[in-house]
Amino acid sequence: MDWQAVISSAPSLWQGLQITLELCAIAAFCALALGAFLALLLMRAPAFLQALVRVWTALTLGLPLLVVIYLLYFVLPEYNITFSSPVVGVLALTLYYAPYIAHVIRAAIEALPRGQWEATRVLGLSRLRALGDVVLPQTLPQMLSPLMGLLIGLLKDSALLSIVSVQEFMYEAKQAISATYAPLEIYLTVALCYWVISSFIDFLARRLEQRMTRYSQRLPH
Fold first, then answer.
1. Which of 102, 118, 122, 187 could disulfide-pair with 39, CB 3.0 to 4.6 Å?
2. Whether 58 contacts 123, CB under 8 Å
């Protein structure tokens, strides 16, 4: 085991990891925003808009992420639409994960008893205030676990972006292997880093879920 190869490659690996985290943070924010918008359309938009969203969702959910990346990076330039590699990465992750997020949000909101909405109307609350004061506090704990699972999946799938030369963690790992000829040590290090980050996200999700549901745990059964 030549761990000196990992030490000598540490600066480039660290730089790649930073780029991975930055791209994933941007893609996660965009996917959440787009997913929330799609969920709103599926619940409140006219029928023809809902149909368009369902078709787009079905197409996106039926394609592997790698195909989405190839379409954005290799096919769009044929129509004079060109994006840089990092932009392609963010777009691909956003378009791929937004429909999943939309279904999570919609399912959580639609699972709320209809009486809750009726109570907000009786109290004279606006729809925006009802959403912020009544709906979200009850649905966020149900959304949190699946949303964090999708975030972990987004993080792991970002490794595919190395295929289109995004200089993220896996790309730098491949470069380090080419220079050091130590694939076992480099890939073990990469795997450990992904595992640590994913475990940390899962830990945060469980702690947040416990805090959000603390009030319900104190209620008598």
1. 102
2. no
